[in-house]
Amino acid sequence: MDTPILQTLTSLIPMMLIQGIYAIFAAQVARRTQRSVPLFVILTLIPFLGMLLFVYVIWSTTLYVLDSINELKEKS
């Protein structure tokens, strides 16, 4: 017989796998944008908070790229 706790933990496995993938991407972005890689990975692995942080990572990456493009335009 499965216990309710075991069923709950089993149901969290897909979410944890997805957040593990998010953590890999967040680490790469943090490294390229000179931010704290361990902090980004740890925060991304926290259930539910990790999904919100990943949205922040995507948003900050977009802003970083746009700022870089604007700097290049100003130098030209």
Give an overview in words.
The protein has 76 residues and is mostly helical. 86% of the residues lie in helices and 0% in strands. It has helices spanning 4-32, 37-45, 49-75. α1 (4-32) runs antiparallel to α2. The chain is elongated, with a radius of gyration of 17 Å. The mean pLDDT is 88.
Give the SSE layout.
Elements: H1 4-32, H2 37-45, H3 49-75
Helix pairs in contact: 1-2, 1-3, 2-3
Short synopsis of the structure:
This protein has 76 residues and is mainly α. It has helices at residues 4-32, 37-45, 49-75.
List low-pLDDT spans: none
Form type? elongated
Q: Total number of β-strand segments?
A: 0
Radius of gyration (Å): 17 Å
**Structural class of the secondary structure composition?**
mainly alpha
Question: Which range does the strand content fall in?
Answer: under 5%
Q: Sketch the major β-sheet.
A: none
Q: What gap, in angstroms, lies between the N and C termini?
A: 69 Å
Number of DSSP helical runs: 3
The percent range for helix content is over 70%
The residue-averaged pLDDT reads: 88
In terms of quaternary structure, the protein is: single chain
List the helices and strands in order: HHH
